[in-house]
Amino acid sequence: MNIKIITDEKNPLFKRREITAKLGYDDKTPGRLEIRKGIAKKLGVKEELVIVRRINPDFGTPAADLEFSVYEDEKMMKEIEAEYMINRHSAEKKEKKPAPEAKEEPKKEGEAPAEKPAEGEKKGEATTEAKKASESAQKPQKPEEKKE
């Protein structure tokens, strides 16, 4: 990973440095945390004080434009930065919540209960009687001829 700093502006009001850089890499675009480590190492600052705002990969080349800020202290960073941006930079992987289980839909009046497959049948396979009933229901019936 190769980081080349393009601009480095000091913002004394927010007690931070606002930096744009060019990132070169070998394989795939590195993640936010990996870039953060590289920036901290290159600039000689604490990793916790670096906020990577934007990673904009160049199409078709192993390069990206970066925008990031380096704060002087953690207190000021927490006051200024949005909570979601600070959460993006947390090293801890949050556990994904398990997907809620599918609940059965409430039955409507006059509706027959859903049949469960019998033993030995695969899920999604209907019984032969049910297949025959559905086939006969799908066949168009001929209208009866009127006798006069």
Please, could you describe this protein's structure?
The chain is α+β, with helices and mostly antiparallel strands. The protein has a domain at 2-88: 2-Layer Sandwich (Alpha-Beta Plaits). The chain is 24% helix and 24% strand. It contains 4 helices and 4 strands, in the order E-E-H-E-E-H-H-H. The chain has helices at residues 32-43, 74-80, 83-88, 128-138, and strands at residues 2-11, 16-24, 50-57, 63-71. It has a 4-stranded antiparallel beta sheet. The radius of gyration is 31 Å and the shape is elongated. The chain starts with a strand and ends in a 10-residue tail after the last helix.
Salient structural properties:
148 residues; alpha+beta; Alpha-Beta Plaits
**Major beta-sheet overview:** 4 strands, antiparallel
Class from helix and strand fractions: alpha+beta
- Shape assignment: elongated
- End-to-end gap: 92 Å
- Total helices: the number is 4
Mean pLDDT: 79
Topology-level CATH name of the domain at 2-88: Alpha-Beta Plaits
Order of strands in the sheet with the most strands? 1-2-4-3
Radius of gyration: 31 Å
CATH class of the domain at 2-88: Alpha Beta
Poorly predicted runs of 5 or more residues: none
Would you identify the CATH architecture of the domain at 2-88? 2-Layer Sandwich
Classify the helix fraction into a percent range.
Answer: 10-25%
Please identify which CATH superfamily of the domain at 2-88 we are dealing with.
RRM (RNA recognition motif) domain
- Which percent range describes the beta-strand content? 15-25%
User: Count of DSSP E strands?
Assistant: 4
State the order of secondary-structure elements, H for helix, E for strand: EEHEEHHH
